[in-house]
Design a protein that fits this description.
Mean pLDDT: 79
Shape: globular
Structural class: mainly alpha
Number of domains: 3
Oligomer: single chain
Helix content: 55-70%
Amino acid sequence: MIFLFMFINIVSLLITSLYPNEFPISKLNNYLNPFNWIGFFGMGYLMKNRMAPYLLLFNRYYIFIILVYLGFLMLSVSIDSGFGYFSLLAFPNEILGMVVIFSIATLPIFRLKKIIAISDYVFTVYLLHFLVFPLRIFLIQNHFTQFINPIIYIC
C-alpha cells in the first residue's frame, strides 16, 4: 500500500508537470497536490526503521557526501533551464540533499541538549514559513538566489 501511495505521488507530479492545463482538477498543481503528502508519508514510513545501518556510513563520509552534493548542485544550476522543486534535476538534488542532511545530523553537535530542544520547534517553523512565503515576490528570483531566499524567509 505504501508503494502505491508513492507511485500515485510520482504519477501526479509527472502529470501536473508535463500537462499542467490538462489535469482533470484544474486547481491541482505541483505545489497544491494532496498526493505529495501521501507520497512523502509513504517514503518517511519506509525510511523510519531502515536508515540506521546507513547512518554510520553517512557519518564516516559526510565531507565527501557534502562535496558531491555541492558539485552536483553547481552542475544542475548551470545546465538546468528551470529552477525550483520541479526542475529537470530536482529529484536527484532532493535525494542527495536528503543524504547530506542525514550525514550532517549524525555529527556530535546534534546530540547536544540545546540543539535537541530547538528541534522541538522545527515543524512549527516549517508551518509558519507559509505565512511569509508570499513575500518572495519582493526578493530576486533566479538560479542562485533560490538558495539564499529560504534563509531570508527564516529571518
